[in-house]
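User: Here's a chain of 103 residues. Predict its fold as tokens.
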Amino acid sequence: MNERKQINFTILPDDQGDSPRTYANFCAISNTPFDFTLSFCEVQPLSQKDIDAAAEGNAVVKAPVRARIVLPLQVVPNLIAALQEHIRAFSEQTGATFKNPVH
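Assistant: Prediction complete.
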């Protein structure tokens, strides 16, 4: 008969030190019925022209994509839980709060 046996293991990144770090201060998220795509961008400070355009209500700021990650749906809930846990631990260590998220 087909008995299912649970196997537990830990996955660790095999960081050889040669992986480049990429800075991003904005993440655009889209999804299909099968996956989520996270597009990490670097937004530069706005120019006076950008600020004036935003005041008129027709601002579009283009930000270069630094990395695009596609995640299967099954990974997303665990990613959210892990991020929440890290934010909680960070807040406890530093006293920082995240009451006003950027949208």
